[in-house]
Amino acid sequence: MDEQKGWLEMFSVAEKICSTSEDVEFYFYGGVGVSTPIKIIEEKFKASQFSDRIKWLGAVYEEDKNMAYKSMDLFCMPSHTEAFPLSILEAMMHSLPIVATDVGAVSDAVENGKGGWLCSPRDEESLLRTVQLALESQDNWAAMGALNRLKFSECFSLDAFKESWQKVIHDLMK
Q1: Spacing of C-alpha 13 from chain mean position
Q2: Nearest to 87 by CA among 63, 53, 78
Q3: How far apart are CA 111 and CA 114, in angstroms?
Q4: Which sign does the torsion angle of CA 93, 96, 97, 98 carry?
Q5: Which CATH code for domain 3-172?
Q6: Which Pfam family, any one of them, does this sequence belong to (predicted)?
Q7: Alpha helix locations (H) across the chain?
Q8: 56 SS3 class
Q9: Which tens digits make up the pLDDT trace of 136-169?
Q10: What angle do CA 8, 46, 43 make, to 5 degrees?
């Protein structure tokens, strides 16, 4: 829960959405980062008037992480900066539509408007508009998730990497 992951902006967006929508829940995952002590994180979630629908569940690993992805309807990653985040690939592998900030190589994985929605980093209003758009587009979530799963399988899976390396080696041996 490092501030660079955008959790503070996402928390604010979650509170705004919960104030107008009773059927939405937000679950935050991640260990304690260097920029925010655990006590501050716990107090922020506990103090929310929507603490029954906005929860921090901490870091998850292995099967717990898979179960977390399987329980999601929509994946949000509002990072301020990233290179090529594995969490995006994991969400794609689990057939989830994605809301993310357009940082690093995120747009190489998530096609804006097709596999999810991209917004500006460090911009709470942009994130709010994007999450609201995603929530208004629930009819498209299954198709977006399927597209993400297909793109993951074709471009980012172990088999895809294996085929790419085999081609490189084959081309070098010519």
Answers
A1: 14
A2: 78
A3: 5
A4: negative
A5: 3.40.50.2000
A6: Glyco_trans_1_4
A7: 7-18, 38-47, 62-71, 86-93, 106-109, 124-136, 141-151, 158-172
A8: strand
A9: 999 999 999 999 999 999 999 999 989 999 999 9
A10: 65
List the chain domain ranges.
3-172
| pLDDT tens figures, 96-137 | 999 999 999 999 999 999 999 999 999 999 999 999 999 999
CB 89 within 8 Å of CB 152: yes
Query: 76 in the Ramachandran plot: left (φ > 0), alpha (ψ -120 to 50) or beta?
Result: beta
Q: What does the alpha-carbon distance between residue 153 and residue 95 come to, in Å, rounded to a whole number?
A: 11
Structure tokens at 118: 């991209």
Which pair of structure tokens corresponds to residue 72? 């999601």
Encode pLDDT of 28-64 as tens digits. Answer: 999 998 888 999 999 999 999 999 999 999 999 999 9
Given 3-state DSSP classes, what are the helix, strand and coil percentages for the chain, each rounded to the nearest 5? 55, 10, 35
Stated length of the chain: 174
Classify residue 2 as exposed, middle or buried by CB count within 10 Å of its CB (0-12, 13-18, 19+): middle
